[in-house]
Amino acid sequence: MKVITWNVNGIRARQQQVLDLIAQEQPDVLCLQELKAKQEQIPEALGSLSDYWCFWHGAAAYSGVGLHIRRDRCSQMPAFEHPRFDHETRIVQAGIDEVVFASVYVPNGGKDYAAKINFLQAMAEYADDLRRDGRKLILCGDLNVARSERDVHPKERKPNAIGQRPEERELLEGVIAQGLVDVGRALDPDNDNLFTWWAPWRNLRQRNIGWRLDYVLANGELAQRASECRVLREFGTSDHGPVVATFAEA
Fold this sequence. Notes:
250 residues, alpha+beta, Deoxyribonuclease I, Chain A, 12 strands, 26% strand
């Protein structure tokens, strides 16, 4: 099973790149963030992906998430839902048997830091509730927190910068502590150059001077079946790179 998460930074600007990514990687589950588009603004070619059950959850100029599940994974359209803490179109989930897939876009926090903190706190409770119910979660998306110092290039480390603050990192650890594994780091534990976002200036992306903000977090049992978690740094024109995780079948 292949799962991809990508912050597209505007679905209308990146529609062909999304189609190219699907053709190149053939994901079973595709999670998209920062659509910057309402349902009616989704390009027609993306709204009619014949091989996928598709759900778009967006606003006009910012935020927005998509979740797309290959039809041969489930014979009927899954129930796409929004946890109670969803606001500003930032999370959508769908279940296949005992596994819940969630596409998440955590607030950046620059304009409303308290909203970011509240969202991260609620996300930990959400993951805990699913764990208590015996459901297995694969949570993917732009979580807008660099998990540790090593997840930010030394040239980009800034005291008290939003996305690097101790309380944000503590809250992200609280999410992971709900039976989840950071698949990218688990499979590449010694890589100090593992980044997923690069500021769009001074050729930072080409020089790989970035932050790791995009994650695939998986239930521990599922994470044990993960064989690969790649960042496609050179793919597309978003300021984020797609993250591609592959899991062996049970």
